[in-house]
């Protein structure tokens, strides 16, 4: 399971997302200026992260490679509307990568795709700007990981189904053969537990 | 009018695109009001989602993927390994060029050597023929004069040099046939004296080595199978009687 695979400390990926947040502005500028080396730097920074996430979703190396390529191409083509001074490239790249992978899963399952347009709308560059300084901090990442470890198995399962399989709560209920209301309770309680731990950490 | 608390639990699912349609429409409508609190909550949810997504088990992508990604946006990195490959390819091409040149020169050299050997051989034969003609002890014999369509020419016999045959107007040798010269002793059976071919009906053939000119009755030529014969198998096309010195 996901949480058992994480090391005691923060993973490489978590560090990438949190530590890179503040020094992405120069890279974003170079991407917008079409500096040929900028794409290479973007890949060095987030390629492994995107590949790991996509592979976790699709479980297929060939498809994962295709989807990573599609992810970076999409970022390259849309970067002009990215907020170079206050934007966060990491969350944007990860969101695009996850959406491509979920979209792929849905197309394989023949469920294309009223959700495709919705996913597209939720990865527009302006959304990934003006984060609070603490939103992607190392402390927050550490707290979030710790909070995950405290979730019940069922809570962890619904979080995985949402993030890595792209199932809505109705689809989770069908998959888990549970009433929709029960599944909604599990999902909301899991997310609330994460939020409460983060809020508690902030107050402390 | 919706209250912010109504959406408090839904921002992560909304950002993942997983809200049911009715819930999503409510959230969209509320965000369109410009609610700063919910706008900030949405940013926090996006950050939370990014951190959760980054918890996927670490998998190292294949090295080729970077080249592929860069190529898809028209960037072609000049990595050291790529440069090394180009350098190796250049060296290979240079080596191939030299190899081809060397092979070409070798072929030309072989051809020149072959031509030289041929010329040298012809010169030796001409020198050999001249030595027959220069020596007063050579016995000359003409043949073919006065005949309707005969081969004609001369035979020169020398006790130390052997026999020189110069012939013209030879009939064409059929496929699988070759000319064979014979030394016919007086009152004896013909002895094989070598195989030769003509060029446009003319030929020069030399039998080297000493022989007893006084015992030779005639020099003859027949057409024989390609491997030659130990005794004539066809009617002679040349018979040159030799009168001893």
What does this structure look like?
Chain A has two domains: 127 residues, Rna Polymerase Sigma Factor, Chain: A, CATH 1.10.1740.10; 53 residues, Arc Repressor Mutant, subunit A (Orthogonal Bundle), CATH 1.10.10. Chain A is built from eleven helices and no strands. The longest helix of chain A is centred in the C-terminal third of the chain and has 24 residues. Chain A is globular, with a radius of gyration of 17 Å. Chain A starts with a helix and ends with a helix. In chain A, 43% of the residues are buried. Chain B has 245 residues and is of the alpha+beta class. Chain B has three domains: 50 residues, no CATH class; 53 residues; 103 residues, Immunoglobulin-like (Sandwich). Helix content of chain B is 41%, strand content 22%. Chain B is built from five helices and eight strands. In chain B, strands 1-2-3-6 form a four-stranded antiparallel sheet, covered by helices on one side. A four-stranded antiparallel sheet of chain B has the order 5-4-7-8, with no helix packed on it. In chain B, strand 1 and strand 2 form a beta hairpin. The longest helix of chain B is centred in the middle third of the chain and has 55 residues. Chain B is rod-shaped. The chains are: A mainly alpha (204), B alpha+beta (245). At the A-B interface, helix 1, helix 2, helix 4, helix 5 and helix 6 of A face helix 1, helix 3 and helix 4 of B.
Please give the structural blueprint:
The complex is a heterodimer of chains A (204) and B (245).
Chain A: H1 2-5, H2 12-20, H3 25-32, H4 36-58, H5 61-78, H6 89-108, H7 114-121, H8 138-150, H9 153-165, H10 169-176, H11 180-203
Helix pairs in contact in A: 2-4, 3-4, 4-5, 4-6, 5-6, 8-11, 9-11, 10-11
Chain B: H1 11-16, H2 21-32, H3 36-53, H4 64-72, H5 80-134, E1 139-143, E2 152-158, E3 162-168, E4 177-185, E5 191-196, E6 203-208, E7 216-225, E8 238-241
Antiparallel strand pairs in B: 1-2, 2-3, 3-6, 4-5, 4-7, 7-8
């Amino acid at each position: 399971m996901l949480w058992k695979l994480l090391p005691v400390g923060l993973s490489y990926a978590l560090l990438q997302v949190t530590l890179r947040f503040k020094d992405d502005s120069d890279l974003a500028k170079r991407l917008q200026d079409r500096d040929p080396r900028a794409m290479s730097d973007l890949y060095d920074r987030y390629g492994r992260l995107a590949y790991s996430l996509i592979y976790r979703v699709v479980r297929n190396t060939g498809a994962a490679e295709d989807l990573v390529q599609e992810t970076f191409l999409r970022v390259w083509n849309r970067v002009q509307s990215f907020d170079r001074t206050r934007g966060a490239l990491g969350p944007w790249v990860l969101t695009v990568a996850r959406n491509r992978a979920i979209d792929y899963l849905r197309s394989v399952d023949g469920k294309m795709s009223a959700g495709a347009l919705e996913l597209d709308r939720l990865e527009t560059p302006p959304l990934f700007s003006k984060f609070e300084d603490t939103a992607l901090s190392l402390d927050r990442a550490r707290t979030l990981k710790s909070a995950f470890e405290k979730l019940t198995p069922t809570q962890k399962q619904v979080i995985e189904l949402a993030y890595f399989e792209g199932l809505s709560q109705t689809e989770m209920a069908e998959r888990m053969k549970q009433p929709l209301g029960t599944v909604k309770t599990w999902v909301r309680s899991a997310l609330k537990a994460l939020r409460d731990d983060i809020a508690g950490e902030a107050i402390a | 009018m919706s209250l912010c608390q109504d959406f408090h639990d839904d921002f992560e699912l909304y950002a993942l695109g997983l809200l049911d349609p009715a819930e999503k429409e409510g959230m969209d409508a509320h965000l369109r009001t410009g609610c700063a609190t919910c706008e900030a909550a949405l940013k926090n949810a996006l950050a939370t989602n990014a951190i959760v997504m980054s918890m996927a088990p670490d998998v190292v992508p294949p090295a080729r993927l970077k080249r592929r990604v860069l190529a898809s946006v028209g960037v072609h990195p000049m990595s050291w390994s790529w440069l090394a490959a180009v350098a190796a390819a250049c060296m290979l091409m240079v080596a191939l060029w030299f190899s081809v040149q060397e092979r070409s020169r070798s072929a030309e050299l072989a051809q020149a050597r072959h031509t030289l050997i041929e010329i040298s051989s012809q010169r030796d034969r001409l020198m050999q023929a001249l030595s027959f003609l220069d020596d007063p002890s050579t016995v000359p014999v003409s043949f073919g004069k006065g005949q309707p369509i005969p081969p004609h020419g001369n035979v020169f016999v020398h006790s130390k040099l052997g026999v020189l045959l110069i012939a013209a107007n030879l009939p064409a040798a059929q496929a699988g046939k070759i000319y064979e010269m014979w030394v016919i002793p007086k009152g004896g059976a013909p002895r094989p004296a070598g195989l030769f071919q003509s060029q446009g009906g003319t030929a020069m053939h030399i039998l080297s080595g000493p022989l007893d000119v006084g015992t030779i009755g005639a020099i003859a030529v027949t057409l024989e199978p390609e491997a030659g014969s130990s005794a004539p198998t066809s009617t002679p096309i040349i018979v040159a009687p030799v009168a001893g010195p």
